[in-house]
Design a protein that fits this description.
The chain is of the alpha/beta class and 345 residues long. Helices cover 43% and strands 16% of the residues. It contains 14 helices and 13 strands. The structure holds pyridoxal-5'-phosphate. Pyridoxal-5'-phosphate binds next to helix 3.
């Protein structure tokens, strides 16, 4: 199978498995797991933040951020297709008592003026704006890199109104590798950052939440409340350290493969690329083939290729560590056959 459903399907490397086997561990709730402590220091250093917290998932990292930044009945500003709005089961409403406020972005980027206009003035009727959430790369917009100056302009607005900014940087390292701008430059535009170790970086489990030390201390307590205080978790922190040390630069290979795939697909009649490909995500529209996304996905699956639905006619393909350049050529060959059959009926 060529698995293009997500970059979460990546399996741990040999070095990660060795690191897990050899990890020094302790009870992390007591702060005694030296491997976890090492990972948290490494992540904080890479992001240029004072401290970091190892969390079970990107969703948990984002939700702990919301819980730590906000009070119940606050409003949180986010892009209308943000992962925190679309794909986290309304967790911030369920857990933090938050009301989301969405803004339509352009390729995932919110207009800073619209963000400013959405900030609530003092009025007895209104909720308080408690947080602004950004996402980089933006998943639903097709893995787009949110430009640094857009983030800076929003940070400016937020600072003027004394509102914190959280970055859902599940794929922040993809943004950094694609743009040549180091992760800490992006992180500098926000108070707190969550990034995933378990996606393109290939670690089996986990995300990091980074920010000021005082914030991370309170976040640690929220993690405990949510049942996310783990024990000898150096077993999974060790592969994450390998991911951060060894798996960042190779994200460029995923981006190259994604471009190669998108360029090839663009030349196939009936297939349309929905967004310019900047990183490892490709959104393909199959409407002109007279197929729904589900029908197209089934046909690909029969050819040994896995993909995911992103709308009625929209299919998402994600390149990752387990997909080679040769696999890309196989996919192009198979899609060509599928399209040709459909169009010559
Ligand atoms: C995957 C993802 C998350 C959530 O990460 P999980 O580890 O799956 O909970 C959050 N934000 C974005 C943009 C993502 O792509």
């Amino acid at each position: 199978m060529i698995d293009l459903r997500s970059d979460t399907v990546t399996k741990p490397t040999e070095a990660m498995r060795q690191a897990a086997y050899n990890a020094e561990v302790g009870d992390d709730v007591y702060g005694e797991d030296s491997t976890v402590n090492r990972l948290e220091e490494l992540a904080a250093e890479k992001l240029g933040k004072e401290a970091a917290l190892f969390v079970t998932s990107g969703t948990q990292g984002n939700q702990i951020a919301v819980l730590t930044h906000c009070q119940p009945a606050d409003e949180v500003i986010m892009e209308a297709n943000a992962h925190v709005f679309v794909y986290e089961g309304a967790a911030m409403s369920a857990l933090a008592g938050i009301q989301p406020r969405t803004i339509n972005g352009v390729r995932g980027a919110m207009n800073p003026k619209e963000v400013e206009a959405a900030i609530r003035p003092e009025d007895i009727h209104f909720p308080e704006t408690g947080l602004i959430c950004l996402e980089n790369t933006h998943n639903k917009a097709g893995g787009t890199v949110i430009p640094l100056d857009n983030m800076a302009a929003i940070k400016d607005v937020a600072s003027q109104h004394n509102i914190p900014v959280h970055l859902d940087g599940a794929r922040l390292f993809n943004a950094a590798v694609a743009s040549g701008i180091p992760v800490h430059k992006f992180a500098e535009q926000t108070d707190t950052v969550q990034f995933c170790l378990s996606k393109g970086l290939g670690a089996p489990v986990g995300s990091m939440l980074a920010g000021p030390k005082e914030f991370i201390d309170r976040a640690r307590k929220w993690r405990k409340r949510l049942g996310g205080g783990l024990r000898q978790v150096g077993m999974v922190a060790a592969p994450a350290i390998v991911a951060l040390n060894e798996m960042v630069d190779r994200l460029g290979d995923d981006h190259e493969n994604a471009k190669r795939l998108a360029d090839g697909l663009a030349n196939i009649d009936g297939i349309n690329i929905e967004e310019e490909v900047e990183t490892n995500i490709i959104l393909v529209n199959v409407e002109e083939l007279g197929l729904t996304s589900e029908e197209f996905i089934q046909k690909l699956k029969q050819e040994g290729i896995l993909s995911g639905s992103y709308g009625t006619h929209s299919v998402r393909l994600v390149t990752n560590y387990g997909v080679t350049k040769e696999d890309i050529d196989t996919v192009l060959h198979k899609v060509n056959q599928i399209a040709h059959k459909k169009l010559t009926y």
